[in-house]
Amino acid sequence: MYPILKSISDYILASLLFAIFLPLLLLLTIILAFHCGSNPFFMQNRGGKDGNLFKIIKFKTMNEKRDENGNLLSDVERTTKLGQILRNLSLDEIPQLFNILMGHMSFVGPRPFTAEYLTLYDDYQNQRHQVKPGITGWAQVKGRNTLSWQQKFELDIWYVQNRGFFLDIKILFLTAIKLFKFSEVNNSKEVTAVAFNGNN
After folding, report:
1. Alpha carbons 87 and 84: distance in angstroms, whole number
2. What's the chain's average pLDDT?
């Protein structure tokens, strides 16, 4: 019963937040369109519920600068000052309201990893796909990118096995606290986490 009620409440809350954030969404879209000189949105295939692919939507925080050999520069070198501000304030996540409205995501659940990782998971790790991925989750409030991959999987699967209304409320509350503290975003100078290479 709770999964159905959660989907309904996700849709209602996402609709309300979309209406509230619409002016900011439009403003940031315009600013980023001029700032990036191209599409202001970052879209990427991610693994969703039951391993089904969907395109996550976020505001673009990095440019497309490449070295003399045509290879993309590191995330740190490509992240713009405006992009870093958006990340610090989690404003780059606002477009994911569309993902919730389309039924691909929930407010709370395991963060969706890139599609290329789907073939690397073992049966234990695949349990994280038993629920919809979330904008925030148990692993995010417990450390986010400061965690090892093993810790992330353990926390995500613990959430799947213990999910419920009160746990979701707790995660949302802890997420709100972390947004004001700007803590534990990264565990190094790198902008994104170390890539997952499977159990090897």
Report:
1. 5
2. 89
